[in-house]
Structures
1.
Amino acid sequence: MTRALRWWLRRPAWIPRPVRAGLAVVLGALALLGFAAPAPGSGGAGVGPNGVGTGPSSGATAVARSSPIRAQATKLPFPPGANDPTKSFPDSPQLRAQGFDLYESSCASCHGVALQGTPGTAPSLRDVGAGPVDFYLSTGRMPLEQPREEPNRNRPLFNRQQIDALIAYISQFGGPAAPTADPSKGDIAYGLHEFTLNCAGCHQIVARGGMSWGLQVPNLQEATPQEIAEAVRMGPYLMPRFDAKTIDQHALDSIARYVLWTRKPADAGGWGIYNIGPIPEGLVTWWIALAALVLTIRLIGERTA
Amino acid sequence: MSRLERKADQKLRHFVRWNEQRVGAATGIKMAMRYVFPDHWSFMLGEIALYSFMVLIGTGIFLAAFYSPGDSQVIYHGPYTLLRGEQMSEAYRSVLDISFSVSAGLLFRQVHHWAANLFVASIVLHLIRIVFTGAYRKPRDLTYYVGLLMLMLAVLEGFAGYSLVDDLLSGMGLAIAYSVAMSVPFIGAQLAYLIWGGPFPGSSSFLPRLELFHILIAPMIIAILITVHLALVMRQHHSQFPGPGRRERNVVGTPMWPAYALRSIGLLFAVAGILFLVGGLIQINPIWEWGPYHPYLSENGAQPDWYIGWLIGALRLMPNYEFAIGNHTIIPNPFWGGVLFPMFVFGVLFMWPWAERRLTGDHRRHDLLDRPRDRPVRTALAAAFLSWVALIFFVGASDRVFYRLQISYVGQIHFWRIAIWVIPVIVFFLTRGVCRSLQRSGSHPLRAWQGVVLQRGADGELRLVDVSPDRDTPPDTEEPVGTVPGQEA
Amino acid sequence: MNFLARLVSILLALRTVFRARPRQPEDEDDAAQNGADAEYDPSEREVPNNPSAERLVALLLIVAAVFGFGFLAVYIILQTNAQWLGGTMGGMLVALAVACIIAGKKVVPQETHVESRDRLLKEEEAEQVVEMIEEGGQGVSRRGLLAGAGGVAGAAFVAAAAAPVASLGPRLGGIHKTQWHRGVRLVDDQGRPYLASDIEIGSMYTALPEHGEPEHLDAGLLVVKLPPDKIHLPSPRQSWAPQGILAYSKICPHAACAISLYRYPTFQPTSGPPAFTCPCHYSTFLPGEGGRLVFGPAGRSLPQLPLMVDSAGYLRAAGGFHEDIGPSWWNVHRGES
């Protein structure tokens, strides 16, 4: 064993020194390039007029609804349909007070002490309602480190109780009730149909995620029906939003049912190799099938030239 | 001889004589049985392709019995619940049937698709071996051209095959193929209308014609080309690496009967076996998950099968150049990546033997192969060209790289637009340097074999003999290169 | 002028690279390369004596048989389970493969033979072939006339043989026409018509022509609504977006994929304008600016369809497309931009 190791360490280098040096330079340059590459969301996307944030107005009182909205969100969540079920969150004065404390320490620096937003940095949270708060916080997308960062799914900073507190606090500032979805009421075939038409262009046909210009589109394997309902009605980040006329409650239930199904699709053919299509299929062709056969012919044939 | 052996001998004799009385092929059979195959493992890559083709024919006949090339829209009422009530073409429905209702249908579908992928992959690997060992030189340039034609046909055939299914993924691919056809200057629209029978998605005769191409025309042409290819190989005898006793004018190897025939049949079983194992255990093209194709639908991350990946890379990399003069669009954008690029790659491949003859002045017949290191410039050029195509191929998948590694897609495209020209130049110099260094060091990089073997001489003694191809004289006439431990000289 | 001179000198330099080297003789009779090496003959024949290998081969054949019968059983009982079917069939074939290979390497005699390659070009025979062909033309005097007439006949033959291919394809007539003209109502994929009041900002809608052919390429539309401050259409198109509702062809003018990605920011200052992106090669178009391309390989902007709202509040096309939808080709109508 040690003999083999010694032989390995002492065998003559068959790549000449200048070539090795060149390789090191090239690989190092490529590695640096990888680090220097711009983070998604900030690269490639044009940016609109950008007022420099002057920070939240000083001396704001806890509920200063008379302060003007400094930075309006470009889109707000749609309300659930008139007769559609909604999700109600716990509410109490203690929760609101706790929510106020949490908000001031974790959110106000960007979203403003009076939820008025900061131009060029973060939108106002007035009139957003419970849905967006629940969605962004339970998926850990908020709080964001940097305003221009892409809000991706992350480990949530707050536990359920704290999220409820924040919901209770922020809901005071207006906004529709949160939608909800019940997968058991949905029709999975209708869900596939609606998902293909409205969602697959970004999220991929079996919800494995993908990309668009300047953004990453998440896969939905961890999405819960509640998160799905909230996302569909509000359109988080760059996602479009869908109202109850376009995607009614039955469609919403069906889409949720389909998305849950995509966690374990009907892989009748065996190992699904991540269900993203020809890329892993090509990898299997070369690195499993052809590799096995090359091994076979090396066993059959001679190896010396 | 035992009784069993005597009976077997009798039966064999009877069988051979029965044939001879009718066909009289003994001379030919003897020649075939004596036919010599050089033994290097890399000479069997072409056989992998041949045997995958056989699996394709066998599984393809099965599938053709159940496939229906209709584009009329039907409502699905079959066993797959997620598509119940969905509107789809008859063709797609027939493939759903094969996948869910026909016994062993899904197995044969998957084996067929894996075999198609393996067919093209083994041809490409075989082509790489041919180029890097100089096997395309006279008299084998004709064989090489036939092989390139087969590669082109295999790629087209595979694309046609998975497009017959009319699922969302392949339908998107057909739309792109239509746009590439349209992009041919001047005659593009006529060409596209000719193939599709009208504007995309085509007339109701498009799928039947595509099926005709896929199950009859292309397999027939490929089979004829395979026959020509093998006939040429047999006529010229297979090439071989230099070695003890191996000269330009002889072939040294294993005769067909019995050893090589058994090994080759074993390889056939191995190809079929691995294809059936992969076909049953690893899913490919789960079309029920993609859903049926409609021109107003698409999905993120749609990709063609791997052997078209170089084209999607080229289409994505190309900046939006589209030249128009007045009312005429001289060069629509898909032309660059979809027509010019593959034509250029195949053009270089076709011209390679002629270019080498012209640049080296070597018009002699060659039957001995080069180790790649023996021709550093050729190897480096081939490696650089291969890296150029391979990089463009990998760029085709760069959206998933973005997804996995969170590197900006726009940044990647800008980087690769430069890098695909810079990296091959680096590869050229690197490869040339490695070849020269390997030549100097005389070592076999994979196994550090110095070309010395242990031999028992006529006197029964063991000695170490140098049989490496680099030495000048045959081993038996040389002094031993060392002593065997435990033995005196 | 300077540039031209430099270009010419580069081309001349390239020419020296590709100029043919002096042609070396085509030696079929190179003595040094010829024949078998008189001193070293690599032929050998080794008759193995390997009963354990033979037993192994027999065992593998039995294993193959077990797998084979297993396949039959699975086929009859399970019928459609691809994993069991593939596993048993594959197992049988792999066992057979290993058996054959072991037999081929360890059981049957291992031989190395030397065969000679015969000459391909035999000078005499090649000459005789040329002479025989030419003898067939003895006595023929009007060769020029025959060659010319033959050439004409050959060209006509090729043309006549190739011409029926044209039967396969229809005429190009109507290539600029689409299903969309003034008054056609926009419906969803279930056939329900869109009211203008249905269309909301930040949402995305796919529309098809009412009573039309949804499977045709020209059918699909993307409909979105933008707030007035985000709409900057060129002046001829000011009336094309009633109530800020914009309609574009859903088919990418690059390679005909359906454009199905729509990004609408929640907060524009940190994330850019609303945009359509095609999933195939990521061509990106701005609906607020008449479908202008901002990234990707498409050579034209996305064609826009003028809209109007009828008296009942339904969305209808106010006219046809002013440029061709779908991929570019020689005579494609490119539109104003």
Note: The two ends of chain A are 28 Å apart (CA to CA).
2.
Amino acid sequence: MKIDKLEDEIISELSALYRRSGYKKYKPSNFEEYALYQENKDFLISKNVITFSDLSGKLMAIRPDVTLSLVNHIEVKSGETEKFFYNEDVYRPTTGGKNYKEISQTGVEVIGAIDAAAIAELTILICKTLLAVSPSYVLDISHMGFVQGLLNEFKCGKDTVAMLIKTKNLHDFKIFAEEHGVDEKLISAFTVAVSDFGQPTTALEAADNTVLNDEMRKAVAELRELYGVLQKFGYGEKINIEFSAVGNADYYNGVIYNGYIEGVPHCVLTGGRYDKLLHKMNKRGGAIGFALYLGEIERYLKKENDVVDYLILYDKKTQIKALELAGSKQNVGYSVRISANQQVNVAYKTKIDLTVGEVDG
Amino acid sequence: MINIALPKGRLGEKVYSLLSQIGYKCDEYSKDSRKLIFSDVNGTVSYFWVKPSDVAVYVKLGAADVGVVGKDILEEYEPDVYELADLKMGKCKMCVAARKSFMDDTSAPLRVATKFVHTAEKHFATVGRDIEIIKLNGSIELAPVLGISDVILDIVETGTTLKENDLKIIGKVSDISARLIANKASYKFKRNEVSAVAEKLKEAVKGYD
């Protein structure tokens, strides 16, 4: 299924949407010191970064991501909140790709004091963003607190369990649980994390019944509140509570988002709460944001079409007539291509051949 | 319509016969045909026959909604997919083997011949042994015999090939069997169809232990 929109149409629609919500446009520099990415390489989608030495010999990088440079350059006063959006190209291999690519990306970041309303507003903005691409979308919402809270209960094999959650692998977990004598309560909580409940309320109910500690309890309460707001504003049906979708625990600490569009076989939007990244960079406050990887869904979008309304073929005798005719058509809004070459490689709706006086189309 | 990628060969045929018994029969299918795609006339299921190591690629890229693939491939490539069921077929073990006379000389990196480079790196990192990898594509057992490696890391089914080449197992890395995997996006938009295949298969292989 093709998405019936051009990339440019989506970008301008989204920019207008973010501006209306009071988000400021942010324009990052193309280059950053490589150290910024090296210190936070697990935050990046790909660890491959294009580097070069600047004129003073400092190792620089062509930005593979926007969030890190934004967080690096923005200082927010205590108690205040700054809201930004961007549409930029980033330079990294595509997911699973073997070469560097210029990938267009649109995103939103909220930095500073984050309250429940800010989270709800951002989540609604995510729904509207996905809707701008296609009405057939699903937003997976998870919470780091639930999964980290669960993982913290394991005395060993945390990485293995994290991997099993991510792949919804219950069968291998059962073997792991048997080998390590894992408690029944943990098995129930793991089962909830990888199960598919369909209805968010059912998922939240099941999660509530299996929480093992305060971290998990708080996470479920936060999701419940958020889902309540989303339902109230008519987005309930598009939401899927999916605990198996988590981000890197060194950076993310709250709500996690993964957006899908029907017809695109991979995740098109990711985001979440990343206070930990700010703290890692010695900054105060909280942060939440998301990015839509337009560049990675290019092939599923409508293509820039090159169909002209009129193709006018001329020869030496008819060239002035061709220019006149083209001008008159253009004046009333048609697109016209004139050509002396009969074999011109152009798609057209109507062909006017002045050399023989034929009209076809 | 659900698209299923199956590995060409014995395992794929076994899985197909199981699927056909639980409601995913495709009348067009014939074991002897060279065709690679079979679709059911009712439009409920389509099968693709692909190279076993490519199943995960087809599923990850969404050409197939689900697929059947060995755990060895999943561990080697770690594709971003859901692993929904253990089909308990095609069982074997990922093992480290060496010549019968092998003694580990810890003063030098261990030379490991294998097809499974990433798996070897992960395994020896967990046991804390420095290694040098020799990537081979087949007849791995030959490497220690000819002295180009100290050990091999490979799949062992019956152990006959090892025995005939004077090799012995010196450690098990993991148990391998066929797994049902699903594309994450397909799982969102074809939830009922994908879950139904997974649940029916799980039920069908219950007694296979």
Note: Chain B touches chain A through 20 residues (CB under 8 Å).
3.
Amino acid sequence: MKKLLIVDDEDGVRALVRMTLDNGLFQIIEASEGLEALDLAREYHPDLVLLDVMLPDVSGMDICRKIKDDPDLASTTVVMLTARAQTSDVGDAEEAGADGYFTKPFSPIALTRKVESILGPIE
Amino acid sequence: MSPKRPVEVRLAIAALAFLVAVVAVLGTWQVLAARSSQRSEIEAGEVSAAHLASSALASALASRLDLLSNLADNVSLSTVFTKAKAAEQATIARTLHLIYPGFASFDVISASGRLDARWPAEASVIGKDVSSQAFFANVMHSGKPYISQALQQNAPPKELITLLAAPVRDTSGRIVGILAASIPGSSLASLIGGTMLRDGGALVVFDQFGHAFTGPGASAKQSFASLQGVASALAGRTGAETGTVPGYSGQRLVGYAPVPSTCWVVVVEEPSSVLSGPIDALTERLAAIGLAVAFLAAGIVALVASLLRKLTRERERVGALMSSVGEGVATIDMDGVVQLTNPAMDALTGWPSSGLVGKKWAEALDLYDQRGNLIPWDDSIAAQAASQGSVVATTGYGLHLARADGQRLPVAMTAAPLRAGNDLLGAVVVLRDVSREREVDQLKSSLVSTVSHELRTPLTMVQGFSELLLSRQDLGEKRSREALEQIHASAQRLGRLIDDLLSVSRIDSGKLRVDLGAVDVREVVDEVVKVAGSQAEGTHTQEALIAERLLVEVAPDLPAVMADRDKLVQVVMNLVSNALKYSPSGAPVRIVAERKRDHAEISVIDQGIGMTEAECAQVFEKFTRADRPEVRKVSGTGLGLYITKSLVEMQHGQVWVHSELGKGSVFALSLPLTPEPERGEVFALQGTKEPR
């Protein structure tokens, strides 16, 4: 079973992502803060991390960098989830080593496709 | 005009006064030099006139004396002297007088000193003894002709004469008598001939004893031998000097010369006016020129002073303008050296008054760009304005100036080229403190960022959940309901955000009005508790939980307050919702209302995250949220407490906070109670309301 880590401080956003992708094929892990997310990532070695940029404690970009720098998490794919759609964010995401980015508001269908393209067909 | 003349005016006056003084000194010197040269010239002329006159007189007298000697040497004459009768002698005298009209009279004098004959005839003197007279003794003693001193005639016209006397000898050479001839003093001048005299000048002839022959002082008795000119001439000297002359008043210029071989003296006198006249004329001319120069100088002084005053006034006006300008203004030259600053510039840069002047701008003041990098002088807009000759201005609020004390100040800068005609002199730099603008700009950015984040998050959920509901048939009852609840909560959240923004906008524009009346605090608190439960985000199961957390303690005898009921509900709701948001879930929030003298105090007490002192100080300001994870975790716009404070103050109340980091906060507000007499009515009103 593929493991998915959702990191967002907004409960609603986590609920939306969970409802979109919760089809019994994933193990879904949730975190509302950056450092908590890093701990969970190291514990569960998720296949995919959907990572919000604006987190209460540390920036999502920093968490992304930390995940990418961690040799134990080499197989982890990181997709940034951001409410900001500025090109500088896109550049920052690439610089931080993110494998992709997704802007809010987002379409659940598009998110599903994005995750499929990364992890292979869900159904 | 100020009482003290400007320094330039004083300098100009001093310079011109100096010029006038120099002209005056030079003029005076010129006058004195001219006077001196004029004097020597006139004196030379005087001496020369005296010399010429004395030579002429000497030669005329000498020729007459020669003539007389020749007559006296005639042999036949000696017989007349020794043998002829008186009548014959008189005839001889008459004949000689007839032949030689140059003489006034002829005398025949015997060797014994008896006057034997005279022509023109004068009976009274015939037979008179003249042996005691100087001429007789002289001729008889020396045997040579002699010219006498001034003698007074006894007979009319009783004038002064000089007597020329020559010895008459017989064949053996013995002196047998004296032939004498007289010349009147008045005709001596004609003997001298046309001696050139100036107007007012006169010729005075003195004899060997200093008696004057001519002029008002003519006398055979009074001697002027002691007068300096006369004495000098008698001593054989020629010269000129200023002194008195007998018969003439005042000081005179006197030229004198001895008459050779006679011991007489000729003095030519000129009135001093002759001497001073031309010099006075020259002096007058120079004085007139001096006066004209002085007037001209005074005119120039007045003109220069007026021009300088105008310039000074202009400069003062520019100075006043520079001082009054609120922006910092400085001028720099082409080398970047500061020429001029105004007080605002000094205040802005922190340099002491005019301390910048004379320094290179680039060395005295550092400018940094928005990334904090030092801007090289050549890239600064002041240098660009000076080199390109066009107006350059900074944009945005990124530019920072390092003040003298090292503090960095956001500034806006405009630089314009400074020209005089076509020449580029440098640049004018205008600096403005944009701290306030920068703050507003940052506030605007934070508003945009907060609002866009606060809008985007609920929108994400509305869009996402609705899409799920529409596209997925397999959601099931439970998930569908959860999706709808999420959509509903998000819609409410958006609604609240818009309400907040509208409130702020209305507060800021002064359009928000309060409708004050008697309000029962308990009623307000009850409503807040009810609404707080229903507004709880997420599922309705939390509603009961929240109602459990809120502990209400309203004093039973609390009178009604003067307030706007809806606004008061909004205020208390805000405080309660904040207390819930920033407290651990399950932690109690107390709502306490009690009477404090003539006020009612409502406190909302939580056991939440609390605040630092600095955070407390800023908590009621617009768009300010503490920058730490516990706060960021909770969604918010930073508008609620600003609205709260504004609304409370509009209801004549006050709001404040006591807080301790990690322990919790107390937000309290006080509102005035309704006036005493109205209270009964309020209770009555509530009494009628309650049964409903």
Note: Residues 681-692 of chain B have pLDDT under 50 and may be disordered.
4.
Amino acid sequence: MANENTISKTPAQESTQAEHTRAGFYYRPNVDIIEHPDELVLLADVPGARPDGIEVNFEDGTLTLHAKVAPRHEEVEFLVREYGVGDFWRTFRVAETVDAGKISAEYADGVLALHLPKAEAAKPRKIAIQA
Amino acid sequence: MVLRSWRPTNPLTQLRREMDRLLSGWVPDGLEWPWSGMLRSQPAVNVWETPESIHVELEVPGLKSDQLDISVVGNQLSIKIERSGPAEENVTYHRRERPVGSFLRVVQLPAEVDANRVEAELQHGVLTIKLPKAEAAKPRKIQVTSAS
């Protein structure tokens, strides 16, 4: 999938245990997860979502991402319809090495960026060698 | 002479609607036949039409307006996208699903458009292009006069 050079949407596969306030289909956002020495950065494509419609939850080592996307054109007759519009939903297992209290998020242009700082104990440490 | 009303009773439209209704329970929207499979290396588009204009929409998360090149030649709309990835060194990628590179999509427009009045808007990673139809392509209501 990653090497195919496509821009496409994938349906969410994880079972959605949480209760839904709106019936409908969920899409699975494409993400990049990048590890830096002191943090993990998660970039998620959630086009069409508004900043106030994005929920990020962290509970019991599970990070849940839910971006509400309002229907944009319900009344129109499509000539071409290659993608659907709906909420994005995806969960991740997060290792204990992340300092959950310091997770932060920012949103711009349809991309959600989550910063997951590593816990002190998990940061790489250079050990000085005594001669 | 064959007279066919355009929207409500077009059998194909009706069949399509019926199938949509039947399948809407389990076929995800994004996998609609047959478009998504055919066009794997191009960004997906939605196109719809109103009496005055044609609308083209694309999802382009993370894109800035200077990474976009939109042009209209005749009845062809070309959209070129340059999507750069985070060019960082000394990092490890655990997932790399977000597509990067340049993408070109050419859309054949179903009617002549007024290229000077094309508007494009980028909001929350969704690009909407509005192409007003040329005067000649707009539907015209013909007034029927009756001689009394």
Note: Strands of chain A lie at 10-11, 27-28, 31-35, 39-45, 54-59, 62-67, 78-81, 88-93, 104-108, 111-117.
